[in-house]
Fold:
Amino acid sequence: MPRNAEVIRQWKLLLHLDGLAHGRSVDELAAELSVNKRTVWRDLAALQEAGFPLVDDKRDRKTVWRVLQLPLKSLTDAGLSVTEVCSLYMSRALLLTLTGSPFEAGLNSLLKKVQRALSPKTREFLDKLPNVVRVRPEPRKKVSAGYNEMVAKLIEASTRRKTAYMRYFSVSSNRQKDYIVHPYLVEYSEGGLYLRAFVPEYDEMRLFAVERIRRCTITDESFTPITAASDEGFEPSLGLGMGKPERILLEFSARVSPYVRERVWHESQRIEELPDGGLRLGMKVCRDWALHAWVLSWGPHVRVAAPSILAQEILAMLDGARDWYVPRFEFGPPFNATASSSALSLPFLENRRPNKRRSVAPS
Structure:
């Protein structure tokens, strides 16, 4: 821990100096960083030893320290400072979450250039910074040969505003269908790429998973973006869905309210505190699969207050999930409740009335 704290402190010192064009004296650095002058001298020496271009100049009969940008001229000419280049290097784990996407080759090339611009000692120093960025890779979609070429073609059609003929496999209908589409944009989300396009046949915007596009031909026919459609984005959804936004009202228990309160789930959200420590969250989003999945993820700690149709959909999903478990308890071993699950109540099949409700599946 002491070593980690020392490296972090030295990185903070470097960040502080890099933002100051005229530099700082040791006395000023000690006061601003709340450390003694001996610590500042030791940290400056350590940073120089690691290869960072720290220089001392005279200013008003006083020695000041600053960061020299010239050693990274090939990158700083593009407007990047020393610490910006280092931050990019340390964020490589975040950037490489796009591994497997069409951007992988470009990102790897960029990171190699950054790596070459840093000396081995500098990279060694940066690698000591503990947990600066830790990224858990999200599940990625499997792609086949020709995927990158397909993405390039879709981006070209979107850029040039050209109509495209497309053959697409729909999971919901389990069949292929041919479409004439007006491509608007390609968007990365949830481990995959999606095409947002206007479909004249249905007079509406639709989302297409790129890996399910079997064939695409760009025509010479141009299209004029529809203002209303081009203004539509993914903003009304908590995920990738599109649709008419509705006013959603959810009530959360006091147990999970701190977790709900500390995040911005959607730009339209409004929070109202409840007397029992819970909260009421209102937002305007479309009633799609992303919303259903998010509400269900809170388990028994959330209740849909409005609209009633959403409450009915969530209840149908809960009943559908329950059907997977209840029959197994009838034939399986006795259920042994533990202290942590003492509040859990799972009625057996013979004590349960038949339920005719169907669960709501994503389109």
Remarks:
- Residues 229-234, 337-363 have pLDDT under 50 and may be disordered.
- The chain has 13 helices and eleven strands.
- The CA atoms of residues 1 and 130 lie 10 Å apart.
